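Notebook entry, structure prediction.
Reason for the run: the old model in the group folder had no record of what sequence produced it. Starting over properly, with the input documented here first.
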Amino acid sequence: MKRWVILLGRGGTVLLAIGLALLLVSLIPSGGQTSSSMGTSYLYPETWQDWHEEVLTPQQRFSLSIKANGTLNVYLFELNSQAIYSWITEHHPGPFTIPTNVTYFEEFLQANPESIVWQKELQNEIAYEYSPTKVTYATLVLSNPSPDSLTIDYSFSTVTLIAPTGKVRTIAQWTIPLGFLLALPWLINLLKAKTKTES
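New structure, fully documented this time:
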C-alpha cells in the first residue's frame, strides 16, 4: 500500500474522530448559569431610565421581555449608563438640569448613534436576545416620550453558555465529511487486502 494513502487514511481517521467528538459536544445543552429578574414598575412622562446594566462576555446571552401599557422606546447600548448621564450634564450644565429628561436623552442619541446596539419602539410587548462579540457593558434604557406614565412588566435573564454550540457544530459538519473522504482510499485498500487474504 502506498505511503501517501496510509498517511491520508490516518489523518482522515483522526479528523473523523475529532469531528464526531465535536458533534457530541455540540449536543450538550447550551445553558449554564442563569441570573434573572422580573417585576412591574413605572416610568414617568417624558423621562428615560437605565433599566438594567451589566458586563457581558461572548459566552453570555442576555434576554429581555417587556410589556407596557403605551408607546415605549427600548434601547440597548454597549456602554455604561454613567456615560449617558455624564454626556447630558456636560452638554447641559446648570443647577436645574434634569438628566432623565427625554429631550436631553434624544440629543445624546443623535450625537452618539454608534453606541446603540439595538432599538425598538414598543407598542405592547417585545422580546429580544443579545449575545456580544466582545467583553462589553450592556445597558438597557427605556424612554417614555409620551405625556402619560407607563406601567411596565419586565423580565430579564443572563445565561452563561457552556459551549458555543453553533460554532462547534459547524466545525463538526466540515470535519466529519473531510475526515471520511481522506480515510476512504485507505479503507478501500484495507478491504481489498482483507478479501485477498481470505480468498
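Summary: The helical segments are 3-26, 81-91, 102-111, 165-198.
The old model has been moved to the deprecated folder.
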